[in-house]
Amino acid sequence: MRRATAAALILALVPTLSACGLLAPSRPTEGPTVEDRVTVLERALEAEREAVDRLRLQGEEGRAALDFARIIREAKQQVFPVLVFVKPIREEFRGGERQQMQVFGSGVVISEDGYVVTNHHVAEKAVEIRCVLGDSEEVPADVVGLDPDLDIALLRLRLPPERLPVRCAAFGDSDRLEEGQFVMTMGSPLGLTRSISFGIISNTKRYLQDFSEYSLWIQTDAAINPGNSGGPLVDARGEIVGINTLGANFAENVGFSIPSNRVREVVELLREHGRVERAWTGIRLQALRDFMRSIYVRDADRGVLVASVDEGSPAEAAGLVAGDLVLDLAGVPVEGTYLEDLPGVRRRFAALAVGEPVMVRIRRSGEEREVSLVPSRKGKVEGDDFDCIEWNMTVKEINPFSDPEVAYFRQQGAYVLGVLMPGNAALSGVAMGDIILRLGERAVASLEDVQAAYAELDGLPRGRRKVLVEVLRDGIPQLLVLDFNKPRSDYKEAERQ
Amino acid sequence: MSERPEVAQRAMNPFPWSGVLALALLLASAPLVAQEDPAPIQRVRDHAASVLWFVELRFKRQDRTREDRSQDGPQDVESRINPYAEYEASLPLSGVLVDSAGVILVPDPQVPRERVESVTVVSPSGERYPGRLWGLVRHHHGLLVSFDPPEGAAPWAACEFVAPGLEGAPGAFDGTVYLASLGLSGDDPSLLVRGERLHATMVLEGGRVLDGFPDGPDISSHRFMTCWLVYDEAARPLGVTLSPRLWRDPDGRSSWLGAGAVLDERVGFDAVDEALGRAERALLDSACEVEVRFRRDAETEEALSRLGPLVGTTPRGSGQPASRVHLYGLSMGEGRLLVIADLDPVHVRAIERLVVKVPGPEGDPVEVPGRFVGLFARFGGFLVEYAPPEGGAPRAGPPAAASPPDGELLLSLALRHRFGGPDVEKGYTRLDGSARGYRDARYRAVLGSLPEGALLVDLDGAWVGVHTREKRYGRPVNPEEVAMGGYRYRSSPSDPDRLFEWDEVWRQVVSPEGFLEPDVVPQSKEESRRRVWFGVEFQAIGPDLATALKVAGPTRDGRLGLLVDAVYAGSPAARLGVQRGDILLAFGEKDSTPVDLVLPPDYAARSYYRWAWRGGRSGSEPRRLWPERKTFLTELLTRMGAGKAVSLRWLSAGEEKGADLVLEQAPPDYSSAPEVEEEATGLTVKDLTYEVRHVLALADTSPGVVVAKVETGSGAEVGGVRPFELVTAVEREPVADSAAFEAAIAARMAAGRRTTELTVVLLGKSRFVDVTLGRVAGE
Fold it and tell me: pLDDT, tens digit, for every residue of B404-446?
């Protein structure tokens, strides 16, 4: 499950990484020079030429493939005009303190009515988004839809009707990509707008543990740096074949883009509904052959292994258990031999109709049988925050997808996301990660309960502003008294926890 | 360490004190004197003035390196001498000329001879002559200084004492004596004469001094060591006394000496050295080296650092680990050794091995294993047994026939391990009265200070006793110390060392039952982590919470009491019906004051920081989610000991309750459970202990083990198994505990399998992991 705070891979650029700070000296100077790359490409080009001759490719495509300078120029002409520099102002609550910061990312206009695709981690929690189009214009934009699971956000430029239709870019077919193919990344690395980098496709079906719930990745050695998030991966034809999302720390020339076919599926749904509804079954899958960890399921050559079944899930209700081998879903065989197959399988499960029973054929202890599975709605994948300002504390709704450890102890409710130190909550003994069980007389089973209690307690007169709190801390309940007599403004130069 | 304050004061301030006080004292004594016939006192004054001399000692200034300092003798000797050495001042003593051929008796300052640079004697008329240290007085703590009188008749006379005799019953008299001593007022000698009416000075019984003479002449006005001339009513000199006490026992021994007695009792320094040499050899013959190996881990590390230099740690750079300590045991015959070393129970529990090096027939030591018998409860020492090869070491001793009288010259020997072998620190001392020790035990006080663990031997080689820490065992447990983690069974550093006479020690060595600390024996790592439990998780209360819960009164505003947060099923607490929300107030041992459960003020804060650090999303690594069971309460109860009958007071729903219970050994918890290292998978696993099950909400019967460690490069590591995950099955067959896990893997290894499948669970989610079995011994 991807999280915006995946430190290794975040690419939304925060203004502290200003251009002057991060340029040149800190970047290692070893690596291929332009001349080296040209040589490599020329050799590749030679190979291409021979291949083309062999295949007797004719026409536009053949000629384009032979002139890489033209490739770049033409692609650039297609996409550059519709490249967007996305500048959201993100508002977060840290320890009960509202914090706003400017983040940078990239995006691309994908429809004539001004829809822009970018990453979810660029646009999330934005209170305002401005987009810079071309060189010449800043246009505000609104969030149309967010899909955290795939890390895609859909924005719409706020353009007056006379400006429409606008130029847009077209999606390519990411399924037809091949390793070695030329691609370009376009975007605003480090805030340097309208930058192009080029390279090849290193891998078309990359599986990243914890980041490949519903999609594989395109790996490229074209530069993807902080600021490139949400920008397009462009092929030789000038079509968008991916949305650049991740880069690797401590590595060079290793970046990842979301395949455009996945993006396209989701964009439609975001446009219609503002979100992507997925079905949830509570099955965790394991591939039959995991080469990373040398884990091989011996007695199976097709299907996918059920690694675990969540408690209280539709899968549990259907009678599935860990160790079952899923062979068919709704009569269609399931392929889960390799890690790379898993996102596809998960997409199939996610696409099931909520509430409608579906037959699943499984093998258990050598015997095949069918079970009836009724998927439920996946719902939110991350809980909302609530800022208890006077308590110098932020709470968050417990969500099993984004907070599995907290959810292990309590499936529903609210927990302390952060406390300001020093601050009222911290000094009263509240700790980050505490699950709130009671506030005063009120039992807490949801974020709304916290909000209601907070509102009520805010009315207490100064000198009597204390509340008995019961929290669950690592499975053991604790009692403490939260004293918030001191106004929060007293904690001026405080550090964030 | 019966340091007399006035001595210490002198050491700190070598400069003479103001003359005003001396004058005041003289005036103060004047009214008393005025009532008497002035003539005797004038005669006393004149006589004393003519026979009292000064002796000045100058000390060598030493530039000593750090290593030299590490071999210092008793610290306070150094602190006494160093100011004189540093400031190049003289230590002044005053005494009486006992032989006109040039012998002066002064009180023995007990300074090491090798530090004395020069001795100067100063006559009553002020002439200065070089002198030398000549000898010690055997039965009184006096030092004899000799000098060469110049050619020609000496203008001064030695003190002629009349035959000893004070009227009255032996040891008690009622009459007037005059005491005179010489002091310094400014730079001028001032003679202080007091007339004292002495009543019932001493009550003697069996030759031992039972009661002191507390109102001895006030010599604090003299800022240095001095002796007192004793005159009778008729101003006749009776003798000289070296301590502010006057007594005479039925055998005719008295605390004052006549000149003849002084010279008769002289022991030359060479004789002292010879006696020390003999005693040293006897000691080395009867001592065996005992090498103690301690188990080093996080818990013992701190305790071992407290062992200190006194137990003879190996010198730096020797290459030996600090966990090995060399001590010396005194042979008690038949394979028994008494080791005088002040170990804590924590140290004892960490003992891994004892090796006794018995002197062999050809002189080469033979190593035999030693068995720890027990730690003495009253004094700092322990007993070791071994199988003596061919007779073993000769017995230490023989013991002194009787307790030596005060002032008797005694040799002190402290056996240490230095530079790879035994090294004896030699010195001498005297006894000086008696004192009250723990539980009113009377013991002989030693003049000056001795190295810890020193043996005292008389000049004939008979063993008088050992000087070691007196343990004040049985103090009520101090909860604050427990909470600070610093609680120790043994006496606190403020409890003094004292002399344990040989027969007292011998009795305890011969039949140690009843004299040893119960349940203090070496333990394995797991055993040492076993705890005594009550079965609750608790928290501090504090004033706000006490008010909110309406228990401010009984908990003294939240300062007292442990609020129960959770009760473990099947625990003593559960059986007593203690529930969440109850407040534990006190645990009481029978015949002992109850221990109020008071957490130190920052206990809550410390716990908070512990939690806070662990809280939050720290990444994808599995966390240890269950609490540490070494808590204030378990530490407290463990100190009290399993099997002890105690009573508990607690508050439940506003009502105070009480109950008796017997403290129980806790079941293993995560820290104390044994680790099972399974080599083929590379996993070190532990059983699912009670607190793990409680926190993870696992039934008592649910199978599985916790992964404690994953060996790098092992099949388990490659497969992605991480610490704190659970392994619940091997090839889909549940494993009940670590023994079952080990057996399951062993069975597969025996069947020649190269891989196996484990079911690994994290936060309730399972997955299957293939693990390559390998890394057997020898590969």
Answer: 877 788 999 998 888 878 889 888 888 877 777 777 778 888 8
Model confidence pLDDT, tens digit, residues B452-511: 789 999 998 899 999 888 877 555 455 555 554 444 444 445 567 888 888 888 888 888
Cross-chain Cβ contact A432/B616 below 8 Å: yes
The set of residues, in sequence order, having a beta carbon less than 8 Å from that of B475 and lying 6+ positions away, is none
Instruction: Among A261, A277, A293, give the residue marking a domain's end.
Output: A277
Q: Among A403, A431, A479, whose Cβ lies nearest the Cβ of B563?
A: A479
| DSSP result, A323-366 | T-EEEEETTEE-B-SBGGGHHHHHHHHHTSPTT--EEEEEEETT
CATH number at residue B751: 2.30.42.10
* pTM exceeding the 0.90 threshold for the entire prediction: no
Mark which of A326, A342, A377 sits at the end of a domain.
A377
Are A330 and A264 within one domain?
no
Within this chain, do residues B309 and B288 fall inside the same structural domain, yes or no? yes
Interface predicted TM-score (ipTM) of this complex, two decimals: 0.80
Give the domain extent around A302. Answer: 279-377
**Which residues in chain B have Cβ-Cβ distances shorter than 8 Å to A402?**
none
Asked whether the beta carbons of residue A468 and residue B539 sit closer than 8 angstroms, the reply is no
Facing B548 at nearest CB: one of A296, A429, A468: A468
Which CATH number is B352's domain given? 2.40.10.10
Beta bridge partners of B661: B646
Distance from CA of B714 to the nearest CA of A (A): 12
CA distance B643 to chain A (A): 29
**Pair (B576, B695) in one structural domain:** no
Condensed to tens digits (0 to 9), the pLDDT of residues A4-62 reads: 333 333 444 433 333 333 332 333 445 667 777 777 777 777 777 766 665 555 555 55
Q: How far apart are CA A383 and CA A93, in angstroms?
A: 13
Given a contact cutoff of 8 angstroms between Cβ atoms, the answer to whether A154 and A117 are in contact is yes
Q: Is residue B132 part of a domain?
A: no
**Residue B628: its chain A contacts at CB < 8 A?**
none
pLDDT in tens, B702-730: 999 999 999 998 989 988 999 999 999 99
pLDDT (tens digit per residue) in A394-422: 999 999 998 888 999 999 999 999 888 78
Q: Do A296 and B696 touch (CB under 8 A)?
A: no
Check A295 against B768: CB less than 8 A apart.
yes
Yes or no, beta carbons of A210 and B566 under 8 Å apart: no
Burial of A6 (0-12, 13-18, 19+ CB in 10 A): middle
Minimal-distance CA residue of chain A relative to B626: A474
User: In terms of CA atoms, which chain A residue is nearest residue B760?
Assistant: A307
**What CA–CA distances, in Å, run from B96 to B90, B258, B551, B736?**
19, 11, 73, 88
Higher-pLDDT residue of B618 and A263 is: A263
